[in-house]
């Protein structure tokens, strides 16, 4: 089954990757084996794990990598010392010379040379195929993110337009309420004036509206 994951790397994933690679370095294994192990645990390809290690995680663990290499060297020396103690005492001068030469070479160099992993054409092709899948998956995630950002921008503009419409409607409502209150006051004043006139004169009252929109009672006989 082909491993395909498009989600982002979490902090826990990066930590697992770093711990596994450092352990393989200490044990004298290869980083490729570490990538395979992490890929099986996270359901990712070894190529994706290698890319993540070299692009993001490695720079954060430079000191830890150096420490793991020193621990690997010390372990190798300890194993060599154990083997020397178990050897048969009968040794020739040539063998002693070769042993001393090997020890001097180990002491003069802080680097441990490891045999490179076996690489053939099938391995390279498989690596490139997995890298291609990861590339397409990354592009697909990028397109999805851009689409969501565009939709979010459109929704924000729509919200702003609706907020403006709501503000305009509220202002119109306030104006209507003010006009209504003014109308009620005019009608109430007209009613009171009519009641007062009915007490002294049965002739129908006459009104006119001034320039301010208020009702004005007209005296009887005036035009």
Task: Provide a concise account of the structure shown.
The protein is mostly helical. The chain contains 6 helices and 2 strands; from the N terminus they run ααααααββ. It has a domain at 1-90 and 100-116.
Structure description:
There is one protein chain. β1 (206-209) and β2 (215-218) form a beta hairpin. α1 packs antiparallel against α2 (31-42), α1 packs parallel to α4 (62-85) and α2 (31-42) packs across α3. This protein has 6 helices and 2 strands; from the N terminus they run ααααααββ. The protein has 223 residues and is mostly helical. The N and C termini lie far apart (103 Å).
Keywords:
rod-shaped; two-stranded antiparallel sheet; mainly alpha; 223 residues
């Amino acid at each position: 089954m082909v491993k395909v994951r498009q989600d982002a790397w979490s902090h826990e994933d990066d930590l697992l990757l770093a711990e596994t690679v450092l352990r393989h370095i200490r044990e004298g294994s290869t980083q490729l084996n570490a990538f395979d192990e992490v890929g099986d645990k996270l359901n990712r390809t070894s190529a994706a794990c290698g890319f993540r290690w070299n692009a993001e995680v490695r720079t954060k663990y430079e000191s830890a990598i150096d420490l793991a290499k020193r621990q690997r060297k010390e372990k190798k020396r300890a194993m060599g010392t154990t083997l020397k103690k178990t050897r048969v005492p009968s040794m020739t001068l040539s063998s002693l010379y070769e042993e001393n030469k090997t020890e001097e070479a180990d002491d003069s160099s802080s680097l441990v040379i490891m045999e490179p992993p076996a690489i053939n054409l099938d391995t390279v092709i498989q690596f490139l195929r997995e890298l291609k899948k990861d590339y397409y998956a990354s592009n697909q995630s990028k397109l999805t993110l851009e689409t969501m950002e565009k939709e979010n921008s459109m929704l924000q503009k729509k919200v702003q337009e609706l907020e403006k419409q709501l503000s305009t409607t509220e202002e119109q409502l306030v104006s209507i309420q003010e006009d209504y209150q003014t109308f009620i006051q005019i009608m109430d004043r007209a009613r009171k004036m009519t009641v007062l006139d009915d007490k002294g004169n049965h002739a129908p009252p006459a009104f006119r509206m001034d320039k301010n929109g208020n009702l004005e009672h007209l005296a009887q006989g005036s035009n």
